[in-house]
Amino acid sequence: MQVVSGTGLKSCSRTQQPESRHICGHNRSTSVAVRAQQQQPAAQEEHIPYRRETLLSAGLAALLVPLQAQAQDGLEQFQDAEDNFAISVPSGWSRAKGAPAGKQNKFAVPSARRNLLWYPEGDPSLSTNVTVTITGVGPDYTSLGSFGTAEQFGDNLVASMDRSYQLRAPAFGARPAGSVQEAQLLAAKETNKMYYVEYTFKKPEEEKRHLVSLIALGNNGRLNRLYTLTAQSFESQFSQQKETFAAILKTFKPPGRRV
């Protein structure tokens, strides 16, 4: 998750929460989303690399609308009007939204790809964060099975990021441990018509990260969409965040699929 991307964002903004101070302006909000994207494994942005040609890129379109009601256990619920999903995050977490940077094809479908981010307020490192990435998919994707089983999906996701084979292959010469990017699949299963994938990811000279993702296929009322929710933290912090992440994932409600 991986929600994660090595590319920057060309736009980003923070939506002020009700009865809370506005933390920063547009520039810092852009910086926050860019840093979160840069922290995450680059392959997350292309989390289906073997069918990458089906995924479209375009700018961010809609606002994230907070619901009036408060969720239980200190979670606040948000419903996204553009892509019709709902999620609850801890009260007091900040949120940002952005679109991938880079030259956009003039024929690209508007809002074909979106990235939304939540993180604990007061954590400038963004070491802990939750992202939702929504990607356009073709009409031939009628179910998650179009991507293979949950196990196949997880294997392909991790394989697209893992470079540990370079430590073992003579063709690459002798490389010391920790000198290449490494990823390891911990779990992959289907649950509630979604795929659950848990894995670790480590870049050279950086602390290992622990990620959990839910992947769902749905229709926002106009387009088929692939929804990827990813919660992540440093491995050293994961035990402290595990229950919070589980509570957040439990609240995730993507739209239904239209046949």
From TrEMBL:
Top-level division of the source organism's lineage: Eukaryota
List where Polar residues composition bias occurs: 1-18
**What's a Pfam family this protein contains?**
PsbP
Sorted alphabetically, which InterPro entries does this protein's record hold?
Mog1/PsbP_a/b/a-sand (IPR016123), PsbP_C (IPR002683)
Name used for this protein in its record? PsbP C-terminal domain-containing protein
Q: Name one GO biological process term.
A: photosynthesis
**One GO CC term, this protein:** photosystem II oxygen evolving complex
- Which molecular function GO terms apply here? calcium ion binding
Q: Where is this region: Disordered?
A: 1-24
PsbP C-terminal domain location? 74-253
